[in-house]
Structure formats: C-alpha cells, structure tokens
Sequence to fold (331 residues):
Amino acid sequence: MRFRRLCAAVLLAALIPVPSTANAATTCEDVFTPVQFGLVRQTMYGRLCVPQGARTVQVLVPGGTYTSGYWDIPVDGETRSVTRAMNKAGVATMTVDRIGSGRSSKPLSILVDVPSQAEAVHQVVQNLRSRFAKVLVGGHSIGSAIAMVEAGTYRDVDGVLVTGMTHQWDYVRAVPALTNLIPALLDPKLSVRGLDVGYLTTAPGTRYTMFHAPGPNIASVVALDESTKDVVSASEFVTTALMSTLVLPASNAITVPVMTVQTSDDYFCGTPPLGADCSSAQALVASEKPFYLRAPRLDGFVVSGYGHVFNFDTKTADRYHTAVVAWQRTL
Fold:
C-alpha cells in the first residue's frame, strides 16, 4: 500500500507544471535566416538564446564595426553581457550580425544601407512571431537606426530599445572620430575578406579613443575589441545620418513604447542641438520626445563615465540591465 501511494505521489508530482524562474536553463543555437535584401537574397546570422518558458524575445542589432558579440562580451565574467542578463531574467535574445558583417552574407557595399538592413531584421522578427508572444527590437548606434526604421516601417514589434544613438549629434566630436575609419581592404586583419572599398573599419589602435574613452583603459577589454572588430558600409553611415537626425527621423513612425539608453560621454549627448540632453533620464526623455511623436511612451536611462560602447562598462551594467528588464515587463 505504501509503495502504491509513493508511486501515485511521484506520478502526481510529474504532472504538475513547474513555473520557469529567472535562473532557468537557457538553450542557445545558431540561426541563419534567408532574407530578402532589396532586390537580392541574403542570409542573416543570429544567435538565439531561449530560457525555459520565455514568452518575450529581444532582437538585438549591433552598431558599425561590431557583430552580434557586442551583446555578449566574454571578458572578465558575465557582467558585460546583455544577453545573459536578459536570459537570467527569463527573456530570450536573438542577436544578429548585420548584413555585410560577421557570419552574415557580404554583398556589394553599395547595397548595404539602413532600409535594407531593416528589411532583413523584419524577416527575422516575422520568423520569431509564431514562437513568442512578444517581440522587441533593439540596437546600438547604427543598429539603433536599423531598429527604428524596422519598427516604424513594418510595425510588427511590441517595443523598441534604442542605445548609443540620439537624434541630436555633437558633430564637433563625432566628425573627428570618423577620421579613424579606413577601407577594410587596407586593414591587416580584415583585408583577407576581399571586401570592396565601400566597407570600412577602424584604423589599428584607435578603438579605445574612438569608442571607450573616458572609460578605463583596460588592456584585456581593448585587446578583445580590437581582435573582434568588423566592418560597416559607407552607405549605412549615410542613411543613418539621414534617417535618425532632424532630416528625416524614422522614429516619428514608431507606434509602440520606446526606451532610450545613452551615455552622457557619447557623441550623441551634449547641449542641444549639439547632442541630446543626457544630464538625467528625465532630461533625456524630454530632449528626445519630439522625435517620437506617435510612440505612446518614451522611457530613458543614462550611463555616465564611459564612451560610445557602454556595453563594455561594468560600473553601471547591473542598473542598466535591470532598467531594460523592468521596462520590457511593462509592455
């Protein structure tokens, strides 16, 4: 009798569903999505990581000269990893390589612009729609421009995360920084790819000054950044400038909640109109709100003490990640 009762108890326990937790096991896989890219077909690479029971996924697009690895920086532990922070909170992540970079297709650079990148990301979003209840799109720098165009054009996401990009640029600082760009075919590391002259990268030894300063100059961090650097097309730069500034702000077509995360030491922050007001989260929202006329809500978070690629920062990582998780849970 005791044996029968024990068996019944075990069977009952097996049938009761166990709720997923923030520390649930996460499964990751490489995904190569065939996408229409303008008039041609290309393949967009992504790294999909899904915690057990996840109902929300963030599609994250990196900035120029970075790949999907920007969202999962493997140096000095897990502190710098956005994807691991999201996964621990029960949120799935799909980090992609922009077309032309990383493990994605590499067409002629003239074809690689923000609208075409947004079209490719749109198809990644559509593939995830049947699997997740909510799909968010986010980006960093040029990746943010792509995310904004995707959300405003296709209106198929539930929220937009914009990092490392505002609509008011400090050109006094931004333009000199761009002089560090060279054709990738002249770079000792990237020349072997045989890319055309329209693909650019950073000159050797310039990444700390261009992207990290005034953050700490940590040798292992800068070495990793240099060793994993990638490319950006000149067309991406031009279309980003046109579609994410006062000229033709694609963000005005976004109709879902937006969160903007910026660092006060970036090229995109300063004294308007030379940079958005990043003196506080409230000031940032007030400064950027006119460019999100149709978004029902705009939230903000400000990082300080680090440069453009603040995913490498450890001092504010926990607060930054926590703020993003809290925001997406309100959608």
Observations:
- The longest strand covers residues 26-37.
- The chain has a mean pLDDT of 91.
